[in-house]
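Sorry to interrupt, but I need a hand with the structure work. Could you add the entry underneath, on a fresh line?
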Amino acid sequence: MRRARLFVPVAAAVLLSSLLAPTAAEAAAKPRVFANCAQMQKVYKGGVARAGAKDKRKSGKAKYKPVVNTALYNANKKSDSDHDGIACEQ
């Protein structure tokens, strides 16, 4: 009887936490949207690129290498001013 009283609340807590907590797939499904390049460059110094992007820059090299993440790029596509597939490059 004593075991049953302990088991029921523990099982309920485990069940509720698994239902309420977002899974890793859900968290990864929604990429972060940045308001502007200054905010993005605090997290991603070289910006964010989609797979296969080429830099259109004609003068010199980039300071930092961009992070390649197509989902994150698509969420922040508005920040790609030269439409080369790299948002907020530096």
